[in-house]
Amino acid sequence: MDSPALVSTITRPGALATPGAVAIEVIPAPRTIEDTGIRRKVLEDLCLKILHLSGELTLRDIAERMRVPLRIVDELFGRLRKEGLCQVTGMAAGVHRIVTTSEGKARAAELLATTQYAGAVPVALEDYVDRVKAQTVRNLHVDATAVQRAFSHLVLRETTVTQLGTALASGRAIFLYGPPGTGKTTIAECMWQLFASDTIWVPYAVEADGQIIEVFDPGVHRPVAQPDAHDQDGRWVRCQRPRVMVGGELTVDMLDLQYNPASKYYTAPVQMKASNGILIIDDFGRQRVRPDELLNRWVVPLDRSIDFLTLAGGRKIEIPFDMLVVFATNLDPSSLVDDAFLRRIQSKIQLDSITRDDFHEIFRRVCAGTQLEYQHAPVERLLDVITTDLGEALRPCHPRDIVQQVLWTARYRQQEPRLDDESLALACRTYFVAR
User: Fold this and answer.
1) Residues 197-217: pLDDT tens digits?
2) Model confidence over 292-333: pLDDT tens digits?
3) Distances in Å between the alpha carbon of 152 and those of 145, 169, 254, 297, 355?
């Protein structure tokens, strides 16, 4: 079999510009309460909670926190004032400064006991679904030149690059498998480079059946410069397409809405946060959820690109399952899942041991990013030690890891690092397990 090889350089190239499915247009700000798609009562309650928690705010302050135009907050204020829930304390820059009344404080406390969400006005579930479909990751343009550039900092066989490009063009789930140290995780992360410069809209929160689902996650979503438009709907954040990675910590509960009993609202599951981006299931088969349980949960999403999430009380909501799902494992795929599931993951790419020439090329690139001067002869003798004396298969991770050992030893000895037989022999004794 044609075995691939790869190496991560010290610094990766910049994001590659790849045309997306749609241009990122400005989402018009709602002009009326009805335009938000959210019931007036929900907006009034949210406004009152924000005011109560802050103590005293101007209407403009509230509008900024709710991410809606001032005219909408002014209308909400009129209703709250009429009901005796807030009162004016003065003016600031031409707008009212207000606080809650005693009745308003009592009402706000009741609302906070139901849900403590006090952030941006959520978007309607229907609007969220339409937006995810409009900025789908399925129709991204992937050509050979872009794929070659995305993986140019890795040493890969041409056949492997073609397999990866074909899998990415499909827009479907991808299975990367092979022994440890063959670069599965590195390759999965590099796939994101193909659309790293693409941008999408992510809502702060979504409202479904009266429940709030927080979607925007600063740990996942990377905001980019917003369009220079005064009429942009502030409830949406312009972000790079997300890249989400989960490993052994993944449980089946993380695949559904996460209800926080303290805050009393939901957080989106990992696949919802990864919408319109890439979701990497690293070390597949070593999660706290069994592989068959995970794939049983996703049999419909993988097949039909829709997912069902469960709210309190058992009501289910339907959302798009729109992302590139990459499974990376060093276990035998046939031992993890049955043929029916493997059929649903049509792109299966094996990453295996490498040739001596590939090993030299990887070593040369690693040395180029460090203080070490590459020496062909010592590396050639190192290859004999690894394959003959130690009986190890050559892995793409070996050059980088061995060079690190050489550098660490030189730092400890307070010497200039050198690539010679002595330093490589010591690195091997430290790095490999004696058989």
Assistant:
1) 889 999 999 999 889 999 999
2) 788 888 888 988 899 999 998 789 999 999 999 999 998 888
3) 10, 18, 35, 36, 18
According to CATH, what is the number of the domain 130-350? 3.40.50.300
Cα–Cα distance for residue pair 383/237, rounded to 1 Å: 51
Q: Compute the chain's Rg from CA coordinates.
A: 27
| Residue 238 CA to its chain's centroid (Å) | 15
In CATH terms, 39-120 corresponds, of 3.40.50.300, 1.10.10.10, 1.10.486.10, 3.40.50.410, to 1.10.10.10
Amino acid at 12: R
Q: Which residues 6+ apart lie within 8 Å of 224 measured at CB? A: 199, 238, 239, 240
- Residue 364: how many other CB atoms lie within 10 Å: 16
pTM > 0.90: yes or no = no
Q: Strands, E, within 135-247: which ranges?
A: 174-177, 199-203, 205-208, 211-214, 236-240, 243-246
Beta strands in 66-141 (DSSP E): 86-92, 95-100, 123-124
